[in-house]
């Protein structure tokens, strides 16, 4: 237990320090793990394979699914399907072929297990760069949806290939049938669980209780689907997409808590996952000590290049070939410029889901240590090569889309305008009915608040009325109000210290001030 606590605390601390100094968090964690594993007295961490999947995969997939757009996924279903299903199958096949041909004694099933581990991508870093650089929304949408759906595809395929490798399933036909059953059954199980879960969340009416249920949903969905032989990861994905799509019906407190909770869980799990690479890589290398290091490096380099090149080889034909074959598709969705598939083809870093699958490889699998070494090497290779190069590539391709940001700001401003007018109209209805009464100064405050929100949206669109300080009125309001909030907090803390207010009062007013500051900061 102490070992686990030290692992979580240490990896979290290292990730925070890496962010503070601007280093790559995954690489820093791996190096720290390697250094620690060489120190005397540091325990060797060995994860139970089933526990590794249960701890890492459901919460990571679920948190991503909650923040995804079902509407965007449906609108781009064809390219997303080609990447998250077609490319996963293609990568698994080609990596398996290369590994089997290159490594003497590596059986076909074990080679395909390696391919399934390395097939899913982790586009978190690429998506953050794409958003920061203002890349077209279509690219961002495809990358986000691909990284979520291909996790489910890859983990389902991983389970099938492991079963074949261990003799639980026999032959390609039986494996394909099991994959189909696992896929359909997983989606059905997730939706069947999400429907009553949504009703329960609405009925509870308490943010803490709702978040407790939210924490249970991915693990329950995974366990229920797996108990019927279906894909637990697809069940988690389906449940997360459904509940995320209907999250607007939850209370504001529930949404705020849920977002913060899942961000915390995701960050901790990612930190622990990368730290475990470093901690486990040394024992894995020790078990492979009889193999020539140059041979191991050659294996890792060949598999890495296969993963890298196969994505490029798939993305360009998948982008243009369907349009070449279908005039209807060309008319409905014209071919994008070559820079689009170029950016997507390079955004293929591997991450924590691949690591979780590697940790979950059963001890009974032949060549397990070699599979782990190759998986760790490719994950690190993509982080070292593709990750740092993606921002420079995106800039070089010239894909920055200013129009999209302008259109988003215009749509937001128009929506604020419509909402503010509707809100004020509702207030007039309440007052006109005679059931509601308010002093004139309260009505003035409500009108000022509505107009402030409306004007702030238009000012973000185009700052055409700067103040003497070079700020828009709304920016000046935010800056000055934040300073006032800091002063108010200081006064409340001083009054508590002097014994003039109780801690309960301090917590209550701090909660109110925190909500206001969060609202101002988000703008």
TrEMBL record:
Q: What is the top-level taxon of the source organism?
A: Bacteria
Cross-referenced Gene3D superfamilies: 6.10.140.1330
Subcellular compartments: Cell membrane
Name the predominant localization. Answer: membrane
InterPro entries (alphabetical) = Cation/H_exchanger_CPA1, Cation/H_exchanger_CPA1_bac, Cation/H_exchanger_TM
Q: How is the protein disposed in the membrane? A: Multi-pass membrane protein
Q: Give the record's keywords alphabetically.
A: Antiport, Cell membrane, Ion transport, Membrane, Sodium, Sodium transport, Transmembrane, Transmembrane helix, Transport
Q: Could you list the residue ranges that cross the membrane?
A: 80-103, 109-130, 179-199, 219-243, 264-285, 297-321, 342-365, 371-394
Residue stretches making up the Cation/H+ exchanger transmembrane domain: 11-394
Which Pfam families does this entry report, sorted A to Z? Na_H_Exchanger
* Function in brief: Na(+)/H(+) antiporter that extrudes sodium in exchange for external protons.
What protein family is recorded? Belongs to the monovalent cation:proton antiporter 1 (CPA1) transporter (TC 2.A.36) family.
Protein name as it appears in the record: Na+/H+ antiporter
What organism is listed for this UniProt entry? Kitasatospora cinereorecta
Q: What is the lineage of its organism?
A: Bacteria, Bacillati, Actinomycetota, Actinomycetes, Kitasatosporales
């Amino acid at each position: 237990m102490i070992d686990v606590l030290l692992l979580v605390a240490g990896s979290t601390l290292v990730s925070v320090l890496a962010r503070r100094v601007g280093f790559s968090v995954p690489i820093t964690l791996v190096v720290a793990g390697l250094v620690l594993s060489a120190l005397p007295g540091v325990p060797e961490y060995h994860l139970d394979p089933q526990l590794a999947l249960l701890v890492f995969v459901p919460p990571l997939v679920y948190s991503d699914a909650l923040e995804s757009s079902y509407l965007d996924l449906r609108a781009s279903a064809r390219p997303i399907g080609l990447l998250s299903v077609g490319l996963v199958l293609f990568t698994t096949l080609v990596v398996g072929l290369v590994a089997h041909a290159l490594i003497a004694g590596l059986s076909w099933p074990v080679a395909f297990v390696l391919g399934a581990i390395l097939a899913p991508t982790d586009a978190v870093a690429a998506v953050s760069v794409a958003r920061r650089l203002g890349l077209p929304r279509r690219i961002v949408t495809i990358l986000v949806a691909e990284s979520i759906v291909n996790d489910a595809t890859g983990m389902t395929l991983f389970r099938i290939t492991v079963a074949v490798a261990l003799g639980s399933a026999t032959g390609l036909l039986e494996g394909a049938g099991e994959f189909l059953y696992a896929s359909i059954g997983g989606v059905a199980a997730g939706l069947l669980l999400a429907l009553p879960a949504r009703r329960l969340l609405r009925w509870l009416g308490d943010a803490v209780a709702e978040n407790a249920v939210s924490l249970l949903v991915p693990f329950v969905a995974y366990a229920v689907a797996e108990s019927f032989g279906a894909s637990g990861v697809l069940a988690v994905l389906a449940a997360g997409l459904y509940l995320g799509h209907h999250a607007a019906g939850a209370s504001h407190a529930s949404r705020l808590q849920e977002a913060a909770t899942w961000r915390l869980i995701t960050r901790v799990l990612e930190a622990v996952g990368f730290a475990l690479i470093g901690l486990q890589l040394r024992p894995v290398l020790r078990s492979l000590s009889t193999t020539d290091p140059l041979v191991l490096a050659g294996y890792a380099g060949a598999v890495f290049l296969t993963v890298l090149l196969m994505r490029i080889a798939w993305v360009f034909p998948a982008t243009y070939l369907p349009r070449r074959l279908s005039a209807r598709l060309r008319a409905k969705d014209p071919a994008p410029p070559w820079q689009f598939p170029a950016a997507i083809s390079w955004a293929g870093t591997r991450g924590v889901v691949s690591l979780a699958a590697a940790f979950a490889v059963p001890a009974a699998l032949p060549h397990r240590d070699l599979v782990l070494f190759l998986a760790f090497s490719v994950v690190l290779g993509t982080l070292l090569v593709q990750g740092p190069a993606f921002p420079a590539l995106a800039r070089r391709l010239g894909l920055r889309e200013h129009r999209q940001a302008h259109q988003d700001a215009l749509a937001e401003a128009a929506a604020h305008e419509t909402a503010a007018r509707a809100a004020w109209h509702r207030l007039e209805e309440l007052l006109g009915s005679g059931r509601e009464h308010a002093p004139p100064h309260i009505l003035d405050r409500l009108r000022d608040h509505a107009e402030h929100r409306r004007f702030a949206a238009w000012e973000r669109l185009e700052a055409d009325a700067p103040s003497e300080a070079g700020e828009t009125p709304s920016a000046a309001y935010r800056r000055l109000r934040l300073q006032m909030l800091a002063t108010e907090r200081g006064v409340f803390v001083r009054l508590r210290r002097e014994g003039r207010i109780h801690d309960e009062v301090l917590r209550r007013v701090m909660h109110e001030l925190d909500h206001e500051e969060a609202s101002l900061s988000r703008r």
